[in-house]
């Protein structure tokens, strides 16, 4: 799935169309790993539907939720957010979106969403109000845009002209890494944290090595949080297929980080496992779970740990 790249003037005649859709899923306890689709709904001439399925076991699994473009012969550009509604007091409604991210839907890549939308144990917990009489309610808001030009200009003006080659956003301060064989416009822009957590990038003196190969590898991997490709960071368990963009892994509840190595991570479904040094050192306490609301102080501490892995040679660009 590709991010929008063109950068042209805004067409003032293009007006985003926004709509909200409510999907009541009955017999939610019987939902399995098969695709379960909502009825089709329309926004202007475009047809959409939602997709939900269970991922993983019933105990430690997740509910996955996606937005699907129907009859998408030409590309569409849209923002969306998804929510699971607290049906009791509406205090716990869980809403997920990718801030300022515009998604391109195509015939080949027609679905975007969240693999780890909510843990099944949280979904079933009566205190959260997400499931009442075996029914849960998914709310989807979609803002569709006619032109790529409008989408890109809006994103660039709000954030930055530079977009991270890994996570496809420019939400935090950007760094640039010059290619060894090129200069000037041939610059790869990345977040410092994204490249520090990219497992196959390393340094030979002051030269960043293997960046292009790592970008090519990650371009085929979807983030388990946002669904966008470019997810270079994988779970410490080799057989696990969960991959993440660095910002989402750092902000995902129940991801567990290795205190000694810093750059090693266990995904939420495998956070109970032990890292190598934890298996060999008796009496060593497990690393604390990463909070979904990452505090600045803890982030700074983690950056110091990660810095032991690689030496940074970035120049600030924004």
From TrEMBL:
Domain of life: Eukaryota
Region (Disordered): 278-318
Biased composition, class Basic residues, residue ranges: 307-318
Major subcellular site: nucleus
Coiled coil: none
Keyword Mitochondrion annotated: no
GO biological process terms on file: double-strand break repair via homologous recombination; positive regulation of transcription by RNA polymerase II
A single cellular component GO annotation: nucleus
Domain PHD-type: start-end pairs: 161-271
Subcellular location as annotated: Nucleus
Pfam families xrefs: MATH_2 (PF22486), zf-HC5HC2H (PF13771)
Entry's Gene Ontology molecular function annotations: ubiquitin-protein transferase activity; zinc ion binding
Keyword terms of this UniProt record: DNA damage, DNA repair, Metal-binding, Nucleus, Repeat, Zinc, Zinc-finger
InterPro entries: BRCA1-associated, EPHD, MATH/TRAF_dom, TRAF-like, Znf_RING/FYVE/PHD
Keyword flag DNA damage: yes
MATH domain mapped to chain residues: 18-142
Bias type Polar residues, positions: 289-298
SMART domains noted in UniProt: MATH
Name recorded for this polypeptide: MATH domain-containing protein
């Amino acid at each position: 799935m590709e991010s929008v790249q063109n950068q042209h003037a805004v067409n003032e005649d293009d007006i985003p169309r926004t709509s909200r859709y409510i999907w009541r899923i009955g017999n939610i306890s019987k939902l399995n790993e098969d695709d379960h689709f909502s009825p089709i709904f329309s926004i202007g001439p475009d047809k959409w539907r939602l997709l939900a399925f269970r991922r993983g076991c019933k105990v430690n699994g997740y509910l996955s939720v996606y937005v699907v473009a129907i009859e998408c012969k030409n590309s569409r550009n849209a923002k969306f957010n998804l929510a699971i509604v607290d049906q009791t007091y509406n205090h716990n409604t869980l809403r997920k979106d990718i801030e300022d991210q515009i998604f391109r839907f195509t015939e080949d890549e027609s679905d975007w969403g969240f693999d780890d939308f909510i843990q099944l144990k949280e979904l079933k917990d009566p205190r959260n109000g997400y499931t009442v009489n075996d029914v849960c309610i998914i709310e989807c808001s979609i803002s569709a845009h006619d032109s790529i030009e409008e989408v890109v200009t809006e994103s660039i003006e709000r954030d930055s002209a530079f977009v991270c080659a890994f996570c496809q956003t420019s939400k935090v301060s950007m760094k640039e890494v010059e290619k060894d064989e090129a200069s000037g416009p041939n610059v790869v822009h990345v977040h410092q944290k994204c490249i520090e957590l990219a497992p196959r990038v390393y340094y030979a003196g002051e030269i960043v090595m293997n960046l292009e190969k790592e970008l090519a590898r990650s371009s085929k991997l979807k983030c388990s949080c946002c669904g966008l490709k470019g997810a270079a960071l994988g779970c410490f368990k080799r057989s696990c297929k969960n991959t993440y963009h660095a910002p989402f892994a750092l902000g995902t509840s129940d991801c567990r980080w290795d205190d000694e190595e810093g750059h090693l991570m266990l995904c939420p479904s495998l956070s109970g496992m032990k890292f190598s040094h934890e298996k060999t050192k008796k009496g060593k306490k497990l690393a604390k779970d990463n909070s979904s609301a990452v505090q600045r102080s803890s982030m700074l501490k983690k950056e110091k740990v990660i810095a032991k892995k690689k030496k940074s040679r970035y120049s600030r660009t924004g």
